[in-house]
Amino acid sequence: MSYEAYSEERLWRAEAGSIARRVNLGWWWHRLAPALVGVNLAGAGTLLLFRQQRWPLLPCAFLLAGAWLAAAVWAWWRARARFYAVPEGLLRLETHLGWHNVLSAAAAGGVRWPNFPEEALKPVQWQWGPSARPLLASLAFLLAGLFVPVGAPPKPYLPPPAQLPIAVQQVQTWTETLKEQKLVEPAMLETWDQRLQQLKKKPAQEWYGQEGLEAAESLRNQMSQEIDTTGKSLKKAADMLSELQSMPAGASVPAEFNSALNQQLANMQNGGLPMKQDVAQAISNAQNLSPKDLDALKKQLQDAAKTMSSMQSGNAPPCWYPRFWDPSVARSWKWKSYRPELDRSGFCSLRLPRFWLLRL
Length: 360
Hints:
mainly alpha; 3 domains; 2 strands
């Protein structure tokens, strides 16, 4: 092959390669432009959300850049079936010049390469309008999401300042109920009431602050635990008195029975809600009581145990009440099953199942 023929072949193949690159870029842009419009519109909404919630914008920028990169890869994957190579570029030149397979035949070695024309060849031209206008509009929306004024983030629901937190209201109700029973030592109830009054005397603006809610919830949890422990001890003591009633008249009481009864009494007296002295003495001397007094003591303990058990769930709001509205109980949300139920604090908790969002 002469130098002139080689030079002509190099020029034609370079022009065909340039046409192939422009066509490939055009098909890639044809797929990419609509995807970029969607990404920019979604990015504008995401920017508004981040700015409204006062979140840092750097993660949003990374998300947007990642979405652009993913759109570029997706567009290349969809457009690659229409990509040109050098033979297709030569065929495009033949069609543009009106030649019939001259360049294809020269590439196959059948004929001599024709002379490369001196004027510029324009077999393909860009048309930016159809794709640029929607893209520019989406970029305008993206810039608007960055600069348009947004309001403050929505504030969580808080009851009015005149309303005590739920935990304080519940402790107050429990204290009044225990006073009406006249079974717990009044001095200890007075101690609980003093702690309650300390919370109520704080300014109303501090009731729903972080420290105020933690103090109220701590007091509620402590009293709930004491009520639960005392209620169980009262029920066991009442059951033991029923067992004592079933013993034959005049029969000696086993030492194990007395030891177990004294143990239940010690559990009650050592807790945060001890029994009054006359009730404690009646329980310790239960084997010496008359049948009538023993039956009255048993019923008193049974009623007190039922009342303390109902105190754990009797003050609950309806199960449709959104638990997360009350900041004082928001940290005990549970996700296990769909069944709404009452937990130990007496509030509704929605249980949802665990499931896989994505299985690989």
